[in-house]
Amino acid sequence: MSENMEQSPEMLLSPPIPSLPDDVTIDIVARVPRSHYPTLSLVSKSFRKLIASSKLYKRRSQLGITQRRLYAVLRNRKTGEFSFYVLHRKLNGYNRLVVVRSLPFMSSRGSCVSVGSKVYVFNDLSVLSFDCTSHTVQRGPNFPQRISYKEANVIGKKVYVIGDAFCHYVQGTGWMKVWQKAVTVFDTETESLEPKLVKEDMAVGVGPFWSDSVVLEDKIYLKGYMNGNSFVYGPEERKWELMDEVLNSKDWEGACVVDGVLYYHDRSGKVLMAYDPKQGCWSVVNGLEEFLAVETARSRWSITVNYGAEKLALFFPKKQYGEKMICCAEIGLERRQGGEIWGKVQWCHVVIGDGSFDMVKCVSVTV
Question: Where is the signal peptide (predicted)?
Answer without folding.
Answer: none
